[in-house]
Amino acid sequence: MNTIKSSLTLNDVSFQFTSQSSPFFKNITLAFAPGLVHFIQGQNGVGKSTFFRILQGRIEGNEIASGSIS
């Protein structure tokens, strides 16, 4: 039995907190290889939690996200 491995791919993902604010992320394209452990690191306030909220689809109120995640 063959198992198909898939990866997490973000294609041209952009995000802004309101329509009046500058983009927080703009046109991010990433691919996470299957079968590997990945981690995100950075200083406080650089957008790690926001990035994970976008992955989870937890966009709130006036926030705007575009692009595709597969």
| Separation of the first and last Cα atoms | 24 Å
Which percent range fits the helix content? 10-25%
Largest sheet descriptor: 3 strands, antiparallel
Structural category is mainly beta
Give the CA-based shape.
globular
Quote the average pLDDT. 88
What is the spatial order of strands in the main beta sheet?
2-1-3
Total number of beta strands = 3
Order of helices and strands: EEHE
Strand content: 25-35%
Number of helices: 1
How large is the radius of gyration? 14 Å
Poorly predicted regions are none
Give a short overview:
The protein is built from one helix and three strands.
Features:
70 residues, mainly beta, 1 helix, globular, 3 strands, 3-stranded antiparallel sheet, 33% strand
Folded structure, characterized:
- It is a single chain.
- This protein has 70 residues and is mainly β.
- The longest helix is centred in the last third of the chain and has 9 residues.
